[in-house]
Amino acid sequence: MNRRKILGLAAAAAGIVTLAWTGASHALDSRFQDKNGDLVADTPTDPSQQVDPGTIIFAYTPVEDPAVYAKVWDGFLRHMEKVTGKKVQFFPVQSNAAQIEAMRAGRLHVAGFNTGSNPLAVNCAGFVSFAMMANKAGEFGYNMEIITYPGSGIEKVEDIKGKKMAFTSQTSNSGFKAPSAILKADYDMIPGRDFEPVFSGKHDNSILGVANKDYPAAAIANSVWHRMLARGVVKDGQIISIYKSQTFPTTGFGYAYNLKPELQEKIKEAFFSFDWEGSALKEEFARSGEEQFIPITYQEYWDVIRKIDAANGVSYACK
Length: 319
Known about the structure:
Layout: H1 3-12, E1 55-60, H2 66-84, E2 87-90, H3 96-104, E3 110-113, H4 118-125, E4 127-134, E5 142-148, E6 164-167, H5 173-187, E7 196-199, H6 203-211, E8 217-221, H7 222-231, E9 240-248, E10 252-256, H8 261-273, H9 280-285, E11 292-295, H10 298-301, H11 303-311
Parallel strand pairs: 1-2, 1-3, 6-7
Antiparallel strand pairs: 3-10, 4-10, 4-11, 5-8, 5-9
Helix pairs in contact: 1-5, 1-11, 2-8, 3-4
């Protein structure tokens, strides 16, 4: 499915997504300024409003067990310590909302926010994304897949009617927003009317739920599924895919807007100078084809996600 098709699906599904955030879509919170029009918050020009923490707090999007990823990221965080000259601590967040709130409250300085929550983090918490994982050729992204298990009685998307379908959370692109748009536009299927939606909280919960036959179907990010297969958490044959979407941008990495400019540059340097060879980061993420950080901008790389959100009536402003 190409980008134009997914935007058409999103437009047809307008109004089906409602989040806890209120306000105008694409509008930065009133605390922030965007004088250069790049859609992210400007660094305060007043040095007294800039932050230079003694310890940098880092969090990775809560797609799976935080304990697993504390070990995976440890070598990278030690590298960041050398580059920045500061202690760096891993913060194990349990939900996208908690991660956004932590940065909004000033308790989180550097983070990877997942595809769907990235715009909320930018507009509500002052997140500035600058990097994304990619393969050696610079190719990036993941697909949303709708999965089931053998013998579920579901062989095609239409068979989900009258059954339960697991989503992750309303902030997730692949875990809720994109599949909702596709189901509405391509199959005239609406949560609550045609099937019972349930929310698992995270992609690994949805994948395990299908593998263990707790959910007849689920919408998930296939990058998470591939890593779980590689680790042996789930096995080939436990899960069947009945739908695969276009490619979406994956987790965006960045920092809080109000960090001192010198520290921002050091953080960028830490990402782009990290040696992946022999690292726990490569061991984990090469399972889904990711072996380097590439520079990105929120304005360009999240354009398709913002358009899907706008068509679905999603707001990025916080209460």
